[in-house]
Design a protein that fits this description.
It is a single chain. The chain is α/β, with parallel strands linked by helices and 361 residues long. It has two domains: 181 residues, Glycogen Phosphorylase B (Rossmann fold); 149 residues, 3-Layer(aba) Sandwich (Rossmann fold). The chain contains 13 helices and 13 strands. It has a seven-stranded parallel β-sheet, with helices on both faces. The protein has a six-stranded parallel β-sheet with strand order 10-9-8-11-12-13, sandwiched between helices. Strand 1, helix 1 and strand 2 form a beta-alpha-beta unit. Helix 1 packs across helix 13 and helix 6 crosses helix 11.
Length: 361
């Protein structure tokens, strides 16, 4: 379902700031960067002037400013990169923007917060109270904090945070009416938290093939976990196809019996869930984090609490209507709806700034 995009009556100059580790949109892994790409594209299609600060290799949605990632550098290099970023920030302040959408580390926002520019901050990772305190404490202008799920927002007791679900690109994720092949799918980083070892055991116990798409984590212990828990099982019906890009997802997800999401952490938003639903594929997930919000049990998939229940759920996947999965993705996770909700907040923040100027003595 493709909706006609109407230009907004007033074009805004919007600066979108992403972390610079992964390009926007990503080629392979990169959930937050994929969402930022959808957001930038949607804003530009509605007639807004989008400037994106992000990693080299990012797409230009109107104007692109690149900066380097400092997380894996030595102290001297980190200081130099931060100083360079600060200089870029001062230039952007001089050029002027009506509003900012920030999806980066809070400590990179100090110049913008102190300048009082209307700012919407998105929490794509678990919310830390010290980050919230930093944002609120430094802000001298209208500020809005946005969570990507109610579960993520619940840890913040202030009550001022709003929820906007992430979206998927429904134009490029093609619906599959029928299962193309008899296999289970796993999509994500091959880590303990994502539960890839659990997905392997579920496939082995059901006797069904498992196809895994994802990357070996560069986090401490990531390679060791892969070598110990994944690599020894890569034979027979257990297959790892490596990372896949967005163009390959439709076939990978759409052909599967179900997507397994055996997470072991309170994931704020599992983007693989609406991606699978958009392809018509039901999802079987551990009932943790945002999963109870994203999956409608018995309609778009199943919520389970252990591997035994996941195995039982696999036997009932034929009861899920694949068309209902696609419709659910269209109704709840469209890019157009996500962009509209961000713009609604932005317009409110800009109006607050305007009112404050008028009332200034």
């Amino acid at each position: 379902m493709t909706q006609e995009i109407q230009n907004d009556p007033k074009s805004l100059r919007i600066l979108v700031i992403a972390d610079s580790k992964i390009p926007v949109p990503p080629v392979g892994y990169g959930g937050a960067e994929r969402i930022i790409g959808c957001l930038c594209k949607g804003l530009a299609r509605r007639g807004h002037h989008v400037s994106l600060m992000a990693a080299e290799g990012s797409e230009n949605y109107g104007r692109l400013i690149t900066y380097r990632w400092s997380g894996d550098k030595g102290l001297v290099q980190r200081c130099f990169i931060k100083l360079s970023y600060f200089a870029l920030s001062l230039r952007e302040l001089f050029l002027g923007h009506d509003a900012i959408i920030a999806c980066c580390r809070p400590d990179y926002l100090t110049p913008f917060l102190r300048a009082g520019i209307p700012l919407l901050y998105r929490f794509d990772n678990p919310i830390r109270q010290d980050d919230v305190d930093r944002l609120i404490g430094l802000s001298r202008g209208p500020l809005s904090l946005v969570a990507v799920s109610n579960k993520q927002r619940d840890v913040f007791a202030d009550g001022r945070m709003q929820t906007i679900y992430n979206s998927v690109d429904l134009e490029h994720l093609k619906y599959s009416e029928f299962v193309g092949a008899e296999y289970l799918a796993f999509l994500g980083r091959l880590t303990f938290n994502k539960g890839v070892d659990s997905a392997i055991r579920v496939a082995q116990r059901t006797g069904l093939p498992l196809k895994m798409a994802g990357n070996i984590s560069d986090e401490p212990g990531g390679r060791e976990f892969f070598d110990r828990e994944v690599a020894p099982h890569l034979r027979g019906n257990i297959e790892w196809i490596g990372e896949i890009d967005d163009r390959a997802k439709s076939a990978f997800l759409g052909d599967a019996i179900a997507l397994l999401v055996p997470i072991r952490w309170e994931e704020p938003f599992g983007i693989v869930v609406p991606e699978a639903l958009a392809c018509g594929t039901p999802v079987i997930a551990m009932s943790r984090g945002s999963m109870p919000e994203l999956i409608q049990a018995g309609i778009t998939g199943f919520l389970v609490s252990n591997e035994d229940e996941m195995i039982e759920a696999v036997e009932h996947t034929q009861e899920i209507n694949r068309r209902a999965c696609r419709l659910n993705a269209e109704q709840r996770f469209s890019s157009e709806e996500m962009v509209k909700k961000h713009l609604s907040i932005i317009h409110t923040l800009v109006a607050e700034k305007h009112t404050a100027r008028l009332n200034k003595p």
